[in-house]
Specification:
- This protein is 41% helix and 16% strand.
- It is an alpha/beta fold and 391 residues long.
- It has a seven-stranded mixed beta sheet with strand order 3-9-8-7-6-4-5, with helices on both faces. The protein has a three-stranded mixed beta sheet with strand order 1-2-11.
- The structure holds pyridoxal-5'-phosphate.
Length: 391
Amino acid sequence: MQEHLQNELKSIQEAGLYKDERIIVTPQMAEIKVKSGQEVLNFCANNYLGLSNHPELIAAAKKTLDERGYGMSSVRFICGTQDTHKELEEAISKFFKMEDTILYASCFDANGGLFEPLLTDEDAIISDSLNHASIIDGVRLCKAKRYRYANANMEELEKCLIEAQDQRFRMIITDGVFSMDGNVAPMDKIIALAEKYDALVAVDESHSAGVVGRTGRGVSELYNCFGKIDIITGTLGKAFGGAIGGFTTGKKEVIEMLRQRSRPYLFSNSIPPLVASAGVKAFELLDKENTLQDKLHENVDYFLSKMQEAKFDIKPTESAICAVMLYDAKLSQQFAAELLEEGIYVTGFYFPVVPRGEARIRVQLSAGHSREHLDKAIAAFIKVGKRLNVI
Ligand SMILES: *Cc1c(COP(=O)(O)O)cnc(C)c1O
């Protein structure tokens, strides 16, 4: 097997698909230092609200570390639940205006454990083709009949719903924001179709929670459809502090059943208390005032308008993800490398992560970016863009 793996790894490298990791030697924030000593501005973290290194979250984590210890050494139902875990679940339910919430070690686990406890071979799951890998895996673990529709394509969704009418229950599952383009799922239309064809609606808000909607309440706020989405999954690893942890929030019977039957919940350790209480603090901050959400939206608007002014080709976006289209794979890698030399850290994506011929640079904006950070990034984009004949 060793030889086989060596050959496989070599072919991954030769195909230009080998993933290298850059080592950061500072906290995760807008200005970071990498191991080579270079100081760069980070535009590729999911740190949408700048909470990854927020003093109030750190203080809450330290306090809990002293008061509640380091680890739980247990799954939730044996002896792994503290008051901090319950407080976080309540905070999440309140934030999304749902009845109850269940925590997981990650959103990958939340999605992995969502479908199998609720649906059987009598039922149907109808999934957007650009849904996250964890949804795809979660669907695979469940015996329900699978239907797939092209990204945000409502005609195809309707066709799937019609085909699935003989099944007992139908569940539509979609990402709230799609991570490569930054587009939002058309929740108004999805909900209308779900009502027409009697289906449940589940949304993974990993990239949308904390980001879209005036106060960051996600797609329910953006489309003013609170109460019409049955199930929301999300992560604590992006906007809400970026540490670790995932959740599912929804109707109380759904959450109760997941606590009884969801395998990643039943057979995997609790999140550390310090992460739970820093999470509570994150939701408290976002509840109290709207400064971070406003700052993020202001930064997105500013960056987009300046980049469009400079004639960059930007995918329509309604989130904090800005896809700068370059189309050519090699160009996307060269562009990202030259931006790094200019002190701007972004990632170039190409096939198979995005469709062939749709290579791009993905910029992720944050409330942690200052106007100066944005101006520096825009200036670097323009400089490299002109040098490489993109603009
Ligand atoms: C990031 C992401 C996840 C995984 O979240 P983790 O908590 O890091 O496991 C799941 N779904 C979507 C849509 C994501 O973007």
